[in-house]
Amino acid sequence: MQSSDLDTFKDWFSQYTHTFYTDNAEDRRNIDLKVRHTFFVCENIVGIAKKEHLSDNDLMIAETAALFHDLGRFLQYSLYKTFRDSISVNHGRLGAEILDKENILRHLRLHERQLIMNTVRFHNAFEVPSFEDQQNVLFLKLIRDADKLDIWRIFAEYYESPDDKQASAVGLGLPDLPDYSKTVLSCLYEKKLATLSDLKTLNDFKLMQLSWVYDLNFRHSFRLMAERAYIQKIADALPQIEEITGAISIIKKFVHEKAEVKLNQGIEL
Ligand SMILES: [Fe+2]
Hints:
Shape: globular
Radius of gyration: 18 Å
Number of helices: 12
Largest sheet: none
Bound molecules: fe (ii) ion
Low-confidence stretches: none
Number of strands: 0
Helix content: 55-70%
Order of helices and strands: HHHHHHHHHHHH
């Protein structure tokens, strides 16, 4: 693909997303959140992909996939007023359908189109589906890391900001109660991903976000996570009790090891 293709895609994305802004301040915040998220995911994916020494063409494919990865979010929000797939629609699949219907990628080679479509369609799957095409697996791993890194940014900001400045759909409508689920917390100790269906409170959601470190793929992603101190920011928003702080220590140690950051290097997690 050409760099002019990427410019065309960016223009199209900007025009498309503009059509979803309404006079309602809450809707605007939610749409804006996803537009900004998209740009940060693009930045993250290019950063990680460069460290993995991808070719210039692959870098552009990765950036295109990032640009369109949440395309389904806009229609999802406008139809259902939520970002919760389980009560609305699978936004990865919806995004791929929109790309297909609008025929946005028509000038690209078939293989490039397939890579982008599959990356969009499966970016939000619980785990990376098994593809014979290893390049497809690579792009999915890249988008999932780039996406998680920016979701952590959004949550860190969300938990720190006053209620009236928050984009309401971020917390998935979960009640902000002091309780948390032992099942979700145990995932942090067992080093596995927590499942969305186990969430009952906002605290569960925070714990699940922390469990995502066990699904990061690239060393640079761990480094970015460490540099941006996302773990501590989310941990600060959780109840300060031993059962939870113990899990936070395990996660920090895991990230330190994966990032190959020595504790005395001055990087705070
Ligand atoms: Fe997404």
